[in-house]
Amino acid sequence: MGAPLSLTLPPVSGPHSVGATDVMVKLDKEGSFFRLFYPCSPSPGLQHPLWAPRKEYLVGLLISLGFKSKVAHYGSSALLGYSRIPVAWNAPFVAGNDRKPVIIFSHGLRAFRTVYSTLCRELASYGYLVAAVEHRDGSACATYHLYSKPGNENVNDVWVPFRKVEPGMKEFYLRNYQVHQRATECARAVRVLEDIDAGKLEASIMKSEFHLQALKGRIDFCRVAVMGHSFGGASALLSLVKGNVFRCAIALDAWMFPLEDTSYPKIQKPTLFINNEHFQTSSSIQKMRTLSLGCKDSKILTILGSVHHSPTDFAFFTGYMVNAFIGSHGTIDPHICLNVTVTSALDFLHKHLDLPAYIPKLEKLSEEIRTYVVADVPQIHSSKL
Fold first, then answer.
1. Tens digit of pLDDT for each residue in 279-335?
2. Pick the catalytic residue: 107, 145, 180, 308?
3. 107 has catalytic annotation
4. Is 308 known to be catalytic?
5. Structural fold of domain 6-376
6. Domain coordinates of the chain in residue numbers?
7. What's the CA gap between 42 and 18, in Å, rounded?
């Protein structure tokens, strides 16, 4: 019958080893929660973290996909329950005195902070600090915050379940409310990093062996980008309006539906849209073209043979349950799709964050992937009939 679902992530291609840690600030859901991927000192022997940090994430994922609660609880252990992410957990931050550029990453609907570990690891291997935010607006399959009653030292987990669209509810109003909260959370993550860089925040409220003091004076707030997939792509776009610190955005197969039309004129910073071949509607593409016309440095690309979950770790699922759980992988090899995405993103980031010129390996790779990418030219519509 074959093996059940399993996950094998490819090695990173950049020059740095990659570490990861979780950062949570404040005890309520108004705080900030993200996984930080970062270039680290070589740390052989350190533990690799589980892909699903807690069983509740897998249960929530299955329930959000329509499985009954009992089935979800029973099947969650078999669903990648023991797969690990090949990063050095709480490894020492890479030595040096230089400041590292920042990417704030926003996940899609039903996801959580580790679902894009492949992509976040890749970007961190090229010297970026990547903060993968876990949103608490009800769009994650599950998330949590900590809570303690006044005068009580005991800290409890408070879980935030996935929020479905209720019968009779107009989906736009829910999703628009959520996308504004998500953009606020992206901007809030930058403020947390600013406190860390200034030495005002020395530790996460979660138990961790990673010393945040190692990041003091090492974060470059002149070079901050925001990136996201699907719902996270829309969140990244709106973040350009919510946070002046963001210089540019990368939207991976962005779900444009939650954004109100009045937000478009305010989005004037460079944006790279990297679309997958089998998700976008003509209406969504036209909205992207409208945004691209507002900034001459914006671009729209489509990766041929890819599907909507291609930017996620789900693209690297194997086993006989793959098609039943996530559907087709598309016709493009997931490793090639990852290379196309990373190369396109790095090219864009190096230009708009004023970073040093390309690494030679990337220049060669860029030539090899051109056959998989179609560039869209924004269409200027005349007002004349």
1. 898 889 999 998 887 788 899 999 999 999 999 999 998 765 666 666 677 899 999
2. 308
3. no
4. yes
5. Rossmann fold (3.40.50)
6. 6-376
7. 8
